[in-house]
Amino acid sequence: xxxxxxxxxxxxxxxxxxxxxxxxxxxxxxxxxxxxxxxxxxxxxxxxxxxxxxxxxxxxxxxxxxxxxxxxxxxxxxxxxxxxxxxxxxxxxxxxxxxxxxxxxxxxxxxxxxxxxxxxxxxxxxxxxxxxxxxxxxxxxxxxxxxxxxxxxxxxxxxxxxxxxxxxxxxxxxxxxxxxxxxxxxxxxxxxxxxxxxxxxxxxxxxxxxxxxxxxxxxxxxxxxxxxxxxxxxxxxxxxxxxxxxxxxxxxxxxxxxxxxxxxxxxxxxxxxxxxxxxxxxxxxxxxxxxxxxxxxxxxxxxxxxxxxxxxxxxxxxxxxxxxx
Length: 325
What we know:
Elements: H1 8-16, H2 31-39, H3 41-58, E1 67-71, H4 77-86, E2 93-97, H5 101-114, E3 119-122, E4 131-136, H6 144-155, E5 157-165, H7 168-181, E6 186-189, E7 211-213, H8 223-232, E8 239-247, E9 260-269, E10 272-279, E11 282-289, H9 294-302, E12 308-313, E13 319-324
Parallel strand pairs: 1-2, 1-4, 2-3, 4-5
Antiparallel strand pairs: 5-8, 6-8, 7-8, 9-10, 9-12, 10-11, 12-13
């Protein structure tokens, strides 16, 4: 990304419009809109996809379908990240759809350039199964009829990769969608279990399922990105996101039954840390005393990823030991 080449009139309009939640209808006015967006805001969304996809590869999960549909594609960053992570050689086709013809054209052109071995085209709905469905940052702007259309596609997908902003409202909406799909799909991530979401329990209304994606190494020392962050008023540090991964034909499970996942970040205080732990029995508030495990205390402070743990705890909810699983 070269800050000197950016059109700030375009970026300011986009941020004030759809990034600020005020857009009505298609917000792309020209290919230049998409090019500027793709180099900046879309790249930051790509960091969220990198984090979610890294978790899947760490669990040795990969999609079986050889066709990808990037729905609500925008500039197409999500579909391209998926092909890059799992390998273009493992896919025959990438289809893209967006309510904007400009976005569809841009996403097709970029993907064809980056992945010449993959057949890239605009999506035409024939009513057939859609393979791997990729959805990115759509819930905060979808009207009811469009959401119904999307969920109809979900029902025909072999697997779904869905990433959204990590705020309370959108995360809770994604949880609601998750609950409607558990009878038809196996939950791959982030949930370490197949049961009802523990955040729907009484007294958990203020909590939400979210994680943090770190930017690539060097971004915060890159003069162009630093200037962009200051000018755009965006934080280049970790990006909050929510996500959901589903499949109809589950692979061999890579998640032990007693695994737990930390939601959000551990809160660190003098001498102890608090965590919100998602597990099969529900969502638990746990505490770790620094003196009980100084290495884990330090690890929870530095590690922004979302590994699975197996906790040992006492009857007061204090962690006495832990291991990554």
